[in-house]
Amino acid sequence: xxxxxxxxxxxxxxxxxxxxxxxxxxxxxxxxxxxxxxxxxxxxxxxxxxxxxxxxxxxxxxxxxxxxxxxxxxxxxxxxxxxxxxxxxxxxxxxxxxxxxxxxxxxxxxxxxxxxxxxxxxxxxxxxxxxxxxxxxxxxxxxxxxxxxxxxxxxxxxxxxxxxxxxxxxxxxxxxxxxxxxxxxxxxxxxxxxxxxxxxxxxxxxxxxxxxxxxxxxxxxxxxxxxxxxxxxxxxxxxxxxxxxxxxxxxxxxxxxxxxxxxxxxxxxxxx
Length: 272
Hints:
Blueprint: E1 18-23, H1 27-36, E2 42-47, H2 50-59, E3 64-68, H3 73-80, E4 90-95, H4 102-110, E5 115-118, H5 123-133, H6 135-142, H7 155-165, H8 174-181, H9 185-192, H10 200-215, H11 223-229, H12 235-246, H13 258-271
Parallel strand pairs: 1-2, 1-3, 3-4, 4-5
Helix pairs in contact: 1-5, 2-3, 7-8, 7-10, 8-9, 10-12, 10-13
């Protein structure tokens, strides 16, 4: 692929599809959830039982969870308990808004749901709620401006950084980032590390660790879960990456902020 001017187009054009897990005991709620997340916008895993819902929440990197509040109260109560176990995931209630749903709707507010929508009416709103509050877009938004310690300043460096963020810690290769910003891999690798910036691979590794640290704060995910959903081959691989890049044990991630990891990363780079 021939190198183009870095100013040609710097907006990431390929991002991972958002992943939504839904607990939907009613046919109407299942249909509403599927309509709200069409394949071109993402993928949805629909479950009917609380235990299947929890299993799905641990099986992959999940952006948002949709909960059918019109299901039997005994099932809804068990699913609502999961909200506090997965604080990095945006929980959205889907309700027929019957009088009998008032207790469940009130509880959604206390456990941190981002919204409660009317099924069959707010399908388009559900799509936009996921697009704004989902883990992937929220992660990319919070780190949109790279830390000054990374010394990323040129338009191409910033575009590549934001293309990395768009994957929210999922595995991504340098070639995919180069395709996204529409330059050759060689040109991107050479240009990205200019001015004292890290190599592209090191930037990708740092972003994956920042995502791991965020997910590690979820009581519902243990470290093997975090490693698996972010595409590490094992917890040991994640631990090795953490020690090498930020000099921290992965077991301490739940107590470390993103800025703590970035400062550790900068100190190690400075010593290097």
